[in-house]
Amino acid sequence: MQKYLAEFVGTFLLVFIGTGSIVFDNQIYPIGGLGISLAFGGIVTIVILLFGKISGAHVNPAVSIALVFSGSLSKKKLPGYLIMQLAGALLASGVLFFLFPEDETLGASLPSISLISAFILELFLTFMLMLGIFICANTSHFLKNFLPYAIGFIVFMEAYLAGPLTGASMNPARSIAPLLFSGNADLLWLYTFAPITGAMLAYLFWGLLKKIQRLNNIIALPL
């Protein structure tokens, strides 16, 4: 239960602070795209620092699903992770809805480009995020120590560059909750399947990179 509670609290913090910064920008004081991006990148870094050693601090169904395929997360734990991530996100959006009932979007991811373009972009953003996770978690000890900051920086950069286009969700839980509370459920398919597909493609690409590395090591061996 400790792992599941960590995912619940971590996802709550991510959605409350991240999407809350968008609500804050709309309702209280204009912090702009830079401020919103810093909020997302900062809270991701903090959540990983707080809960990384407990649950891995996935706080993202797409990440959890990809890590099951990579063998880093047990299949038996996946349903619990997904349930607690969604529950934490829903609670966060529910609190924001209670505090700011006049806000129309509650920080929901809404595309300003075509749906096909938004799908491709969200897929690519999640691919890069997931690939960064694989690289930092499976390479040198030095990079592992900086994983929270590296992943937070990736989230910040992607949110800053792509936020105006798609919301730069990269996370089904982060999108599902505000979409439901703001009445934009018709976009659930986009912000659910694009991140999961991107994360799975990153898993396949990471596996290919490891195979190439092993092949190079074999070729380099002296006869």
SSE layout:
Elements: H1 2-27, H2 32-55, H3 61-70, H4 78-99, H5 115-138, H6 141-145, H7 147-166, H8 172-181, H9 188-220
Structure description:
With 223 residues, the chain is mainly alpha-helical. Helix content is 78%, strand content 0%. The protein contains 9 helices and no strands. α1 (2-27) runs parallel beside α4 (78-99). The radius of gyration is 18 Å and the shape is globular. It starts with a helix and ends with a helix. The relative contact order is 0.17. The model has no long low-confidence stretch (mean pLDDT 92).
Mean pLDDT: 92
Structural class: mainly alpha
Give the end-to-end Cα distance, rounded to a whole number of Å.
52 Å
What is the molecular shape?
A: globular
Mind telling me the C-alpha Rg? 18 Å
The number of E-state strands comes to 0
Number of helices: 9
Order of helices and strands: HHHHHHHHH
Percent of residues in helices comes to over 70%
Residue ranges: pLDDT <50 for 5 or more in a row?
none
Largest sheet: none
Beta-strand portion reads under 5%
Summarize the structure.
This protein has 223 residues and is mainly α. The radius of gyration is 18 Å and the shape is globular.
